[in-house]
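Design review, sub-item: ligand-bound model
Attendees: FS, YL, KQ
YL presented the inputs for the 5PA complex:
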Amino acid sequence: MLLTELKQKLDSFPQVKLLWGATPIVRAKNLSKETGVELYIKRDDLTGLALGGNKTRKLEFIMGEALEKGCDTVITAGAVHSNHVLQTAAAAKKLGLDAVLVLRGKEENKGNLLMDRIINAEVRIYDVETSRELKDYMEEIAEELAERGKKPLIIPVGGSNPTGVLGYLRAAAEIVGQSNSMGLEFDYVVTPTSSGGTQTGILLGLKLLEPKIKALGIGVGDPREELLDDVGRLIKETAEILNVDEGIVSRDELEACTIDGYGFGGYGTVVREVIDLIKYIAGQEGFYLDPVYTGKGFYGLMDMIRKQVIPPGSKVLFVHTGGLGGIFQYEDIIAGML
Ligand code: 5PA
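KQ shared the predicted structure:
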């Protein structure tokens, strides 16, 4: 598909503007020298909403849908450290909507939860193990609000539905446009993956625009089968709303580009190997990764480069999906590892 054609399709969906503009692609000079690959970072941590991050892109389309449907409230869910939840609250406030944040985990007013409170979103915390289990609570709250005459929209965990994926299709188009104008031909585009929307958008977008680029999603500790099912379903559903072939990415292909082994004991664990890497990268390049998503994703990338799964000389783009609040959410654990 031509770049202009994908851009036009994306422009035809309801949307609001939340990003400042295209995020920069920056060469990681010191790391490139050290690793022997040409390493670039797409700074999606600098989107401009709240603390920034990948959810801003998804929310441009999700909030567009909320406004088009005449909703006055959004309900979404995640862990107390959720970046998505904070981004959703910030987008809602900016657009004059109410936000109800349905959370799980330890209630401590720091990190992203403190930011959720500062922005004055309604926070409800439940005692469940996984964010998936919060779905029923979101539905109950939606009913409760509807009875009070409100018009709520439920946004799934991570904003990972086909509407949200459109935001990462636009990111894929942005990457292709920027790499053309920079005279760069990437071999790999790498993202952390959890609820699957980011990986789906990049994978599908590059498949449509530049199929020779390998789009890798590095798991951050979610169960592999659940992740593959989620991404598989999102590819199908998004292909459908875009009017492109649903089978455009085969299950085998999806399995090959979904990388495992860097979850360090499961989603949300904060481990020394990752904290050491965050310190190292900050010291080399002057930017911060987070302990839950980008730290684990980048660890996987560095390991694949070291093992030459990604061969020397490759041109690699890592999408920095944000997550800065995670540093402060886990400041005590991190401080103990310095
Ligand atoms: C998250 C997710 P996807 O959920 O689209 O796969 O993105 C993974 C990801 N980087 C990558 C950062 C900084 C993220 O926050 N965050 C979730 C959240 O609740 O914040 C959905 C889990």
